[in-house]
Design goal:
five-stranded antiparallel beta sheet, globular, binds adenosine-5'-diphosphate, alpha+beta, binds magnesium ion, 22% strand, 9 helices
Length: 445
């Protein structure tokens, strides 16, 4: 779609990657193209593509994360915005990066505004950056007017340990879904490619939407679902939920049998599988803490939306690249007819595992529980071998980054787990001793 005319006023945006339109309303463009944004609608923005003189060339929907405001730090290839320390580590350790590859992220903790994360051999070093008197500091001695100057300086001047900045960390373009106003889609738009697994509700496939976009498709027999109108109203509520740590529901194909529930595809499958398959090297305590914090953040969001999950368990947490975790299968318990002997939701009434949710405090206990349960398993072995004192859930939770500790949630409110909690879901398959270490390096942030 496209039309020439007067461009709306406002800041200009720049395309970060090439984008090919897949629907009539989407707008194709190349990296570097200029835009005005006329309307921001969550993940899709209605944008006007401009020529060099600022005249409108064409308009249509563009994925919001493909644009960055002109002349801002967002445009810099090394600026990664608000990502966690753990995500920075994974990204820098990924293939394609070299000694000195770096990124700058917004700090999650007080005491710094940004953090510079730099690859050093197989590890990653993190340096705090803070504003003071209108200048950016990386240490007390030197200051810079902006992040670009700081980066340029440390491309020639060593940071520490003979380390200096080389190339920006590799950034992959996100894979946006087709823009569709209608969430109910014809089943012909989807192709089932590969079975990923099966669970209480049916089978899950990796699939394609419109032969282009990779998605996960949950296939559920119509007979197991609630009446169509109840189903539709639940779906309406579920599809509004959008958060970095909530699995996005993309579409449903609910006409006919079976019904497809289409969500984003998470390459590493469920957290339960990851916990079972990973040893301490692959999933150290710091990583578990980060996973716990991510899930707690997702659950806090659900609660802020007055939404009850009803079936939180490690098998319903999906893991993506860089160990990004997303809470999935929320609300699904409400869509399914409960048939005796076939399925029972995880809740204190059934005591079949997972977590009961009744307050933010109880919900956020997931974070501590996840680590505590895993630690508990390791601890029983540890106590027989070493004298290192084990951490309690409280001390684990107090160590969570501040963004994961919403107001009113105190470590003490997080320690009382629900009675129906089943430790096996989180500790299954993990039988090894651990060492609980405090922060060891000065630049740890
Ligand atoms: P359960 O009832 O045990 O939660 P599910 O039907 O939800 O099982 O999922 C079965 C399996 O399919 C999961 O263990 C996981 O490996 C895979 N799976 C489910 N959803 C996704 C997804 N969005 N992306 C990738 N894999 C998924
Ligand atoms: Mg599941």
């Amino acid at each position: 779609m496209g039309s020439k005319g007067q461009a709306p006023l406002g800041p200009q945006y720049v395309g970060l990657w090439d984008f090919e339109a897949r629907t009539a309303e989407e707008l194709s463009f190349r990296a570097g193209d200029l835009f005005h944004v006329a309307r921001k609608e969550e993940e899709w923005w209605w944008a006007v593509r401009l020529d060099g003189a600022g005249r409108a060339l064409a308009e249509g929907y563009v994925p919001h994360n493909y644009l960055a405001e002109k002349e801002t730090v967002e445009l810099e290839p090394w600026f990664f915005g608000r990502i966690s320390r753990s995500e920075a580590l994974h990204r820098l350790q990924a293939m394609g990066n070299e000694q000195g590859s770096f990124l700058i992220r917004v700090s999650e903790k007080p005491g710094a505004d940004y953090v510079l994360s730099v690859r050093d051999q197989q590890t990653v070093r993190h340096y705090k950056i803070w504003w003071r008197a209108g200048r950016l500091h990386l240490n007390e001695a030197v200051s810079f007017p902006g992040l670009s100057e700081l980066v340029d300086h440390h491309k020639v001047q060593s940071l520490s340990h003979g380390l200096w900045l080389t190339s920006p960390c590799r950034k992959h373009e996100p894979e946006p879904l087709p823009h569709c106003d209608d969430w109910e889609r014809p089943r012909e738009e989807f192709t089932l490619c590969r079975k990923l697994g099966f669970g209480y509700f049916g089978e899950v496939f990796e699939g394609l939407w419109k032969d282009k976009v990779r998605v996960a498709i949950k296939v559920i027999a119509r007979a197991d679902l609630l009446h169509q109108h109840t189903f539709q109203s639940e779906i309406q509520a579920m599809k509004k939920l959008r958060h970095k740590h909530i699995l996005a529901l993309y579409a449903v194909a609910s006409v006919g049998d079976p019904v497809y529930i289409v969500t984003e595809l998470m390459p590493k499958g469920s957290l339960l599988e990851l916990l079972r398959d990973s040893d301490e090297k692959a999933l150290p305590i710091s990583e578990l803490m980060d996973i716990a914090a991510q899930v707690a953040e997702g659950m806090c969001y659900l609660e802020s939306q007055n939404y009850i999950h009803r079936d939180l368990a490690a098998r319903n947490i999906l893991v993506g690249e860089n160990n990004i975790c997303k809470v999935g299968d929320f609300g699904l318990a409400r869509l399914i007819k409960v048939r005796y002997g076939l399925w029972s939701p995880s809740c204190p009434l059934t005591g079949l595992g997972g977590f009961w949710e009744g307050s933010a405090g109880a919900w956020t206990s997931l974070g501590g529980q996840l680590c505590a349960q895993k630690l508990q398993t390791r601890k029983s072995l540890l106590s027989r071998r070493t004298s290192i004192s084990p951490m309690t859930t409280t001390s684990l939770i107090s160590g969570l980054p501040q963004r994961h500790s919403p107001e009113g949630i105190t470590p003490s409110s997080l320690t009382s787990g629900p009675s129906g909690f089943s430790s096996m879901r989180f500790s299954a398959g993990v039988r090894r001793p651990i060492q609980v270490l405090g922060p060891s390096i000065a630049d740890c942030h």
